[in-house]
Amino acid sequence: MGLNHHVMTLIQQSWMTCQQQSHARKVVVGLSGAQGMGKTTLSRQLSETFTTRNIQLVSCSLDDFYLSRKEREVLALRIHPLLRYRGVPGTHHVQDLRHIIHNFRAGQPFELPCFDKKSDEPDVKKVPVSKADILLIEGWCLGFSVNHLDAFPNQSGLYQHKPDEMLRNEKEWRLFIHQHLAGDYQKLFQEIDLGIFLKAPSWEMVKQWRWQQEEQTRSHFYENKKEFDLFMQTFEGMTKQSLEVPPEGYHVLELDAHRQLYRTYG
Question: Pick from 117, 134, 203, 208: CA 20 to 30 A from residue 103's CA?
């Protein structure tokens, strides 16, 4: 059974179970996994497949809820310079996503935001959704707990190439992430009915896949490969920990070096 078919089967089983319990029940799916694993492509394919079965699956990415550059710059000045980089817990508008889930469950229309990674800013356009049976949310840290934060490596190396920036106490940065991950992010994760975790073979493979995406999209957000590697370090600790200890309660789908499914558990 291939990856797409296996994920589709898990979602359909969850949806059918909810329909048996309550005909009006909506299903929220969390698709978790490291950068570059093809979550967005998989989500789009799932939406197309479910449409042929008269089931409306709408997908959104946690990435589309990033704070603006101005908002992150305020955090960088107030708390820690690393917070000008998007990605870690605390750099998303989590409450906006929870509001969308509320409207989805209530059968009310909602609008999905978009984030332009090339400009590093939220896009002015939004995608209106009038009807949906399944809401799929994909993101790199869905289902993570504060235990995944414990594996964060020291980040001081990120500033060796920028002497004009003063490295503040890293404890402030970690505390900021800890507070958000333990608070509003856990409330978000509790909204998920079905959790699916795509497990990469290794951290090195994650970086390779993510860099391939960067070259394919030609977003030119990073000045060079070194800048990209430094950016990826902010995800390294939590991602490595998730490969050792996947999110609790999630179905784990292990992929090989070709992004093909080769083992499942959970």
Answer: 117
Domains plus CATH for the chain? Answer: 63-251 (3.40.50.300)
Give me the torsion for CA of 7, 216, 111, 45, rounded to 10°. Answer: -30
**39-51 and 3-21 helices, crossing angle to 10°:** 60
Q: How many residues does the chain have?
A: 266
Burial of 193 (0-12, 13-18, 19+ CB in 10 A): middle
Q: What is the pLDDT of residues 79-124, one digit of tens each?
A: 988 888 899 999 999 999 999 999 999 999 999 999 998 889 999 9
Residue (of 68, 208, 83, 66) closest to 141 by Cα position: 66
Q: Please compute, for residue 156, the number of CA atoms within 13 A of its CA located in the half-sphere on the CB side.
A: 6
Six token digits for residue 197 = 């975790």
Cβ contacts of residue 149 below 8 Å, gap of 6+? 174, 177, 178, 181, 237, 238
Task: Give tens-digit pLDDT for 46-70.
Answer: 999 999 999 999 999 999 999 999 9
Please give the backbone phi and psi of residue 129, each rounded to the nearest 5 degrees, phi first. Answer: -125, 120
Query: Cα(58)–Cα(46) distance, rounded to whole angstroms?
Result: 9
Q: Which tokens hold the place of 196? A: 């699916």
**Pairs from 240-243 (Cβ < 8 Å, separation ≥ 24):** 240/151, 240/203, 241/147, 241/148, 241/150, 241/151, 242/32, 242/34, 242/141, 242/144, 242/148, 242/197, 242/199, 243/34, 243/199, 243/200, 243/202, 243/203
